[in-house]
Specification:
Chain lengths: 318, 104
């Protein structure tokens, strides 16, 4: 059983307003994935992660802890969660994923860097100034908090002289490209998803993937940001047989992830429906969003193989 | 369903709409949104938005779970023939409930 709706939304909103992220983690924890990759700091064009991939192992761990806690906690005690969280970073203390889980998501980020470099794309990284996008709090309708946070992102990008950002997940792409320019004065940075950047470069594959892959489009990528052809073109050029499941492209079926924190059972039921659609298409499916990846993998429970698209692109293009 | 007055209609719609792009008045009640919803939410969006337009506050409050269960996946929005900004409307309703009901 999850915590009460007001507690969950209040804590997420307070964390973004007070600490700059829905799940505040130290700057080292969110930027250490780049250790040893020698990515220059800042620059005209930066890879902007928005922390979505880095947060996933912590959110998974927090979600499990929250569900256990919610089931055992009396309502009045649960209501104390928010005031206490204003003083102490409860979420940060509760979320302790295994090293293996963290490495898994770090590896995805490393794969994306490798593929972009292999295609000749030059970019920097903001390290500790690569801030969370505010997407989850925006979903809950708390635009004033998102506006405050959006100004932080705008100011960080300005201070670093960034003109263009390359995003890597649907939620950060949508926030930086479509939402924050509407909410924050002077939010004018150019935003492109890395799959768009790669497809424009039309890189030559070095290895043939030679396998059937079902593509799971993310709702935001397909319906809000119109990134539909780029992933398919990159996979096809690398010899994959790209298959659209029932409900693909602009009528893709949601993974259920957006309601995971409030209604986990509903989220899981939706994910199971989607996994059945994907499994009926190919034994292996590609995702482009870490939230989709987590939810669908959970629902698949080993019955099919699901991988982030960067896994295949690294194999094919580097 | 609660009987309402013109004042309450105006007041609920005005409160939910304040500072947002809430445009539920554009809904033609065709039901496409309900038929394509992957969550099978019957109440959202057309019925619930209509209740806001009618000022049926108590009925809206009885359906808060539907408001927060929406995935914001936009399947309904891309299918809507009246261009209702469904996800923006859901977010506006959440903002209203956050501050007027849940005490966020």
């Amino acid at each position: 059983m999850p915590l009460p709706t007001s507690t969950v939304i209040g804590m997420l909103s307070d964390n973004l307003r007070l600490r700059g992220s829905v799940l505040p983690l130290g700057k080292r924890r969110t930027s250490s994935w780049a250790d040893g990759l020698n990515i220059p700091e800042g620059g005209h064009t930066v890879l902007y992660t928005g922390l979505t991939y880095q947060l996933m192992p912590y959110l998974e761990s927090l979600s499990a802890a929250q569900n256990k806690l919610g089931a055992a906690m009396p309502e009045r005690l649960a209501a104390l969660g928010r005031p206490v969280n204003r003083l102490v970073n409860i979420a940060g203390l509760m979320a302790w994923p295994s090293r293996e889980k963290r490495r898994h998501y770090d590896r995805i980020l490393g794969d994306i860097v490798a593929v972009l470099r292999s295609a000749g794309v030059e970019f920097g990284y903001l390290y500790g100034d690569d801030l969370y996008s505010g997407a989850l709090v925006h979903d809950y309708g708390e635009d004033e908090v998102v506006r405050i946070h959006g100004r932080r992102i705008r100011d960080v990008l300005r201070a670093a002289g960034v003109q263009e950002v390359i995003t890597i997940d649907p939620h950060t792409t949508n926030m930086l490209r479509s939402v924050l320019p509407q909410l924050v004065d002077g939010f004018t940075v150019q935003v492109r998803h890395y799959l768009e950047v790669l497809a424009d470069r039309n890189p030559l594959p070095r290895r043939d993937l030679g396998q059937e892959l079902a593509v799971h489009d993310s709702c935001l990528m397909a319906r809000a940001e119109n990134v539909v052809e780029a992933p398919r073109a990159l996979l096809r050029a690398a010899g994959s047989v790209v298959l659209d499941p029932e409900h693909a492209r602009d009528i893709t079926w949601c993974c259920g992830g957006p309601v995971e924190s409030l209604y986990p059972e509903k989220a899981h039921a939706n994910a199971r429906t989607r996994v059945a659609q994907l499994r009926g298409t190919a034994p292996e499916a590609v995702t482009m969003c870490p939230i989709c990846l987590v939810n669908l993998r959970g629902a698949a429970n080993g019955s099919m193989r699901l991988q982030d698209i960067s896994h295949y692109l690294r194999r094919a293009y580097t | 369903m609660t009987t309402t007055t013109t004042t309450s209609e105006r007041s609920l719609l005005a409160e939910v709409s304040a500072g947002t792009d809430f445009n539920a008045q554009a809904c033609m009640n065709c039901g496409v949104c309900t038929s394509v919803c992957p969550m099978g939410i019957d109440m959202l969006p057309r019925k619930l938005f209509h209740l806001v337009v009618l000022g049926e506050r108590e009925e809206v409050l009885r359906n808060t779970e539907a408001v927060y269960s929406c995935l914001l996946c936009r399947m309904c929005e891309v299918s809507c023939p009246a261009d209702v900004k469904i996800t923006a409307n859901v977010r506006a309703l959440r903002h209203y409930l956050n501050h007027h009901v849940l005490g966020v």
